[in-house]
Amino acid sequence: MIDPNHPFYEPLWRRVLIPAVCAAWAIFELVAGEPFWAVIIGGLGAYAAYKLFIERKKPPAERPADEPQDQDLI
Hints:
With 74 residues, the chain is mainly alpha-helical.
């Protein structure tokens, strides 16, 4: 559902803001007496944090064409 390598998620502030808003919303739901929705939104925030910080991989740096590839050495 979340493509962590999409250019939209490149700025750090966006990757931090999404789970932070979910956490704030979950706390609001707990205070309002709605534990069901707090768990749902807290889970979404945890999923977003996992995808955006743990699973996110930087694309490999492009090498110039004149550099030998690993397979060329065999």
